[in-house]
Amino acid sequence: MNSIESVTLEVADPTAADRFYTEALGLDTRIRLRASEAPTTGFRGFTLSVTVSQPADVSALIDAALDAGASVLKPVTKSFWGHGGVVRAPDGAIWKVATSAKKDTGPATGKIDSVVLLLGVADMAASKRFYLEHGLTVAKSFGRKYVEFDTGSSPVKLALYGRRALAKDAGVSPDGTGSHRLVINGDDTPFTDPDGFAWEPAAKTAAL
Question: Is the whole model's pTM more than 0.90, yes or no?
């Protein structure tokens, strides 16, 4: 297992969610949707991060998301690392849009450079070991705080972050119970990681 073809979000209204992800964020090829009423409360343990090339694109994507019904968790701000903002989609998923660039080089392009799935984990060492045993290799690591895996040219990248740190970065409480309402679509046999995140072969998910 060394790639993520897409992620499936379990939502109450797939039609509305499809409209949001296609029209507001332009993510129709990387996000799949599945109808679900699985109970979930509070932080669902993950965030999705969209990386773009310049501040104008951050603002444009955040504005489009808000116009389509998202709510602000963190407004777009400038920091020492660049520009970024965080929103909660109408289906409840948390999205961060960010760039490392400090200045614009032109008008917003709407182009997304990468999508990263960040999983909030309880035990970084155990989760890192689990994914290494499942065939991934580490691309970047900061001790027990953050691990990013090498997923090659995958449409979606994968990283691990401590659950509390991830919730703080998103601007929400780390408390939450119930379903993650997330399925990760990979290229291997199905499995569930130590934090309860489920993986399914992409072909199986596409057929649902």
Answer: yes
